[in-house]
């Protein structure tokens, strides 16, 4: 019963967002961004509302959500670490640093820790190629990461 109430509340709030942004040309991405801003992710219960209002199939809406890395289908952790996976960062040891961080946290890409403390996501360029390898913690850019920085990141998100 509680699940239905939650879904009904999500549908209602989604409906308001769609109504506000539907007049835009190409409204799907702005709608998805606002929904994620509202809920912290794009809930499954919002997809049928968006599809119906924009005359799209659920599969089309889901395809857009799953294609773009910025959209989440589940809530992120309290902290989000994004590690750059671009060629510049990889050439400067980014793969080994990523493996170390994932190992320290006991996570894989796109996973959130069981305690909800941290989510680790790949990102395919932070624009810090001159200071590679790079990361982002809760929106703050960090260049020239190394083994010590990785250990510091793991400690910071667990504190």
Mean pLDDT: 94
Sheet with the most strands? 4 strands, mixed
State the strand order across the main sheet: 2-1-3-4
**How many domains?**
2
Identify the overall geometry.
Answer: elongated
Structural Rg? 18 Å
SSE-based structural type: alpha+beta
CATH fold name of the largest domain: Glutaredoxin
What's the CATH class label of the largest domain? Alpha Beta
Give the helix tally.
7
Which oligomerization state do the chains in this entry correspond to? single chain
Number of beta strands: 4
Helix content: 40-55%
SSE order, as H and E?
A: HHHHEHHEEEH
| Proportion of strand residues | 5-15%
C-alpha termini separation: 36 Å
- The CATH superfamily of the largest domain is Glutaredoxin
Description:
This protein has 159 residues and is of the alpha+beta class. The protein has helices at 2-21, 28-39, 47-54, 58-67, 87-91, 94-105, 147-158; strands at residues 79-84, 118-123, 135-137, 140-142. The protein has a four-stranded mixed beta sheet with strand order 2-1-3-4. A hairpin with a 2-residue loop joins strand 3 and strand 4 (140-142). Helix 3 (47-54) crosses helix 4 (58-67).
Annotation keywords:
2 domains, elongated, 4 strands, alpha+beta, four-stranded mixed beta sheet, Glutaredoxin
Can you lay out the helices and strands and say which pair or pack?
Layout: H1 2-21, H2 28-39, H3 47-54, H4 58-67, E1 79-84, H5 87-91, H6 94-105, E2 118-123, E3 135-137, E4 140-142, H7 147-158
Parallel strand pairs: 1-2
Antiparallel strand pairs: 1-3, 3-4
Helix pairs in contact: 1-2, 3-4, 6-7
InterPro entries: NADP_DH_HndA-like, NuoE-like, NuoE_N, Thioredoxin-like_sf
GO molecular function: 2 iron, 2 sulfur cluster binding; metal ion binding; oxidoreductase activity
Protein name: ATP synthase subunit E
